[in-house]
Every structure is written in C-alpha cells, then in structure tokens.
Design brief:
Length: 220
C-alpha cells in the first residue's frame, strides 16, 4: 500500500474558515456599538462570514454528504444534523447583529453567541477532517474526491470564490500557497491569476511574499 497522503477535500477551505471565524470573533469582541462606521464595517464582515458558512455547509450537504451516503449509508448523518443546527445559529446571529447599533449589551450578547458558534464549528470541522475523511478515503479514490471538490469550486459565484481565496491563501503554508497559485496559473486565465495575486500580496507578510515570489518565479 502506498503511504502517499490522501487528498483532503476539507484542508484549505477549513483553514480559511477558521481564520475568518477567528478574525471576526475578535473584531466583534472589541466592537464599539456606539461607533456607526465601525458597526457597519464589522457588521459587513460578520454578514460575509455567515454567508460563506451557509454556502459551505450547503455544498458539503449536496456534494460531499450525498457522495458519502451513496457508498456508506448513514456515514454523513450525524454531522449533517449538526449542519441543521448551524443554520439555526446563523439566522440567530444575523438577528442579533441587527440589534447592535448603539447597544453595547447587544454587542456583548452577539460576541458570546458568536464565540459559541465558532467553538462548535471548530469541533465540527475537526470531526469532518477525521471521521468524514476516513469514510471518503475508504469509499472514493483521490480522483473521485478531486471531482467532488471541482463540482463545488466550479459552482461558486465569482464573489464567493474571491472571498474564499481571500481567507484561504494568506492562512496556508508557503508550500500550499505556492502549489495552489501555481495550479491556478496553469489553468485559469492570466487576468484571474493576476487579480488573485494582487489581492493576496497586501495580506502576506514580506517573508511569505518573498517565498511565494521565489516559488512561482514571479520576479517581483
Ligand atoms: Fe460541515
């Protein structure tokens, strides 16, 4: 048997989600409910986070869970039920956000509720990466798993794709970043690659940017 690592369909998007959740949680924690500009900015970030979380779990339900259930009936049921709870929590967080402008107590409630949501999601993603990957690896080849991933990625609207990239790329290892962007340079139109690169550059520290520039031979 080969010891080569299997394809992890969750790895990069979960890194992005963990980073976006952590970022938004600490921003909500220091939010000044009496500063309208800040409430608007942080509120927009939270709405974007909730939208990406909702889209993410829908993709998992429709593509990943369906594939698992077809070959290992029942194998995606438990975490699928957790997704139903996440939808309820997402709706609740959106409602709490509406009460925040000018209301410090509402901001505190939002912070605590978001903290619970993030904690639950961190545990949930860990279970997907262990329990679900074990099922996927036992029932699907890596090419089949990549095909599932392709179905998800190709169904994203441009703004969903851009937001995913914005949170994934700065928060993966230099080798992972170079591999993802190298793949994009080979397969996507040049202007798409250039746009993603210019979006990620200000989000990387100088050290990470230099490593990327060397790995992709950017000459920048
Ligand atoms: Fe999930």
């Amino acid at each position: 048997m080969s010891n080569a690592p299997r394809h992890d369909i969750y790895a990069f998007i979960h890194k992005g989600l963990r980073a976006f959740m952590a970022h938004t949680l600490v921003r909500v924690g220091r939010l000044d409910a009496h500063d309208p500009a800040e409430v608007a900015e942080v509120g927009a970030e939270l709405k974007a986070l909730l939208a990406i979380c909702r889209g993410h779990l829908e993709h998992e339900n429709h593509v990943i869970h369906s594939a698992m259930q077809a070959r290992a009936p029942g194998s995606a049921t438990a975490l699928g039920i957790e997704h139903e709870g996440h939808i309820v929590a997402i709706d609740q967080l959106a409602q709490l956000l509406e009460q925040v402008p000018g209301n410090a107590e509402a901001a505190k409630t939002l912070y605590r509720t978001l903290s619970h949501f993030v904690a639950e999601n961190f545990e949930h993603m860990q279970r997907e990466e262990t329990e679900h990957n074990a099922v996927l690896w036992a029932t699907h080849t890596d090419d089949e798993i990549r095909a599932l991933e392709h179905r998800i990625v190709s169904s994203l609207k441009p703004e969903q794709s851009a937001l995913s990239m914005r949170w994934m790329l700065p928060h993966m290892t230099p080798a992972e970043r170079a591999a993802m962007l190298g793949g994009m340079r080979r397969t996507a139109p040049a202007e798409v690659f250039d746009t993603v690169l210019s979006q990620v550059r200000p989000l990387l520290g100088g050290r990470d940017w230099r490593k990327l520039s060397v790995a992709l031979d950017l000459g920048l």
